[in-house]
Amino acid sequence: MKFVIGGAFQGKCAEACRRYHMELEEIIDGADCGFEEIFSCAGIRNFHEFIRRKLEAHESVDQLCSELLAKNPQIVIVSTEIGYGIVPMEPKQRDWREKTGRISCEIAKASDEVIRVVAGIGTMIKGEVA
Q: 108: part of which helix (H) or strand (E)?
């Protein structure tokens, strides 16, 4: 598993495509993909939105990381960091933010590589430098 994370509009998808030799078309969009597609795709972007949709559908995300490891261990996951800034007032927003952060920690721990992208520059924060 590979994990690419960073702020909004920082070039995460471009970095994932460049680094992992992928085309953008190979990366499904977590904002609107089918829930089962994540287990067979090469990559997913907007992973944070995938989590939001699962929560809105009242589906558990507690085993998402272990399911991904079992069913699609080569996946490239691209997600926006959402834990910075003002804490939302609405409980559902806080729950989404907290669960996304916790899942991101699990994904990072389980990943072979973790790349953080800032201003279009990817920095490896976990993994072997080639």
A: helix 91-110
Q: What is the pTM of this model?
A: 0.94
Q: Which residues contact 78 (CB under 8 A, 6 or more apart)?
A: 4, 5, 12, 13, 16, 27, 43, 44, 45, 46, 47
The DSSP code for 70 is: H
Residue range 47-95, pLDDT digits in tens: 999 999 999 999 999 999 999 999 999 999 999 999 777 787 888 989 9
118 SS3 class: strand
Ordered strands of the 43-45 beta sheet: 27-29, 43-45, 76-80, 2-6, 113-118, 121-126
